[in-house]
Specification:
Blueprint lengths: L3 E12 L2 E13 L4 E5 L6 H9 L6 E4 L2 E4 L2 E2 L5 H7 L4 E4 L3 H4 L6 H13 L3 H14 L5 H4 L9 H13 L5 E5 L7 H18 L2 E6 L2 H7 L2 E6 L2 E7 H6 L4 H8 L25
Length: about 280
Amino acid sequence: MALLDIKNLTVAFDTSVGLFKAVDGIDVSVDAREVLAIVGESGSGKSVAMLAVMGLLPGTATVTADRMEFEGRDLLTMSARDKRRIIGKDIAMIFQEPVASLNPCFTVGFQIEEVLSRHMDLKGKAARNRAIELLQLVGIKDAADRLGAFPHQMSGGQCQRVMIAMAIACNPKLLIADEPTTALDVTIQKQILDLLVQLQADTGMGLIMITHDMGVVAETADRVIVQYKGHKMEEADVLTLFENPASKYTRALLSALPENAVGDRLPTVADYNFAQEVGQ
């Protein structure tokens, strides 16, 4: 049984000009101990699909699926109370912008301890000690002292590590990382990716990596889903995807890598005609 099993997921938003389908009938599955990358340009529906799983879409969104199960439990028909027991504990998410995702009015220690209190029933000294342990685990120096820091007093890389600490606080079975290295410098990007992969290997959790960076895919993923305008263009193991991509769109993404530049011009996805692949 897959850890997460989604069949024919569609997400539509009610707009002033009618319904807009951000995700159009995609299938997603991931197993424990597996790293699944979901890749595509900005606006391809990668984040929206996973926010649908987390139940974090606005009221203007309509989510339908033939199946959306976590460990065999139906997330679509599950009561709100039961879902709250899963989201944040068994399924956790690291968001794109850590500084914006953390509450500026509370210390990072308070925010980590709040997760521990809500989902693990840890309070007081036990919660504080676990928070220190988590900050140490994600590589933050002087962890005990940093508990009292506010998000604006930390760098972008440190805030991302705090977000990871919050996400893994309850030992989740599935971790969704949404562009976890966005806006970080190259050195910090490598550290964050190495940390996520090491945590995944150590805990055996499933990891979904949302990214537009094919280099990240090559370094981290076991299996890859390629999305374009809400459609799944193809799915393959990472070696097959890079050596023998089946979709024109995937070939366009790969050809746009810097090493494929011809002279002073880099190919772009606009150079490829793949509209028929999505029925346009």
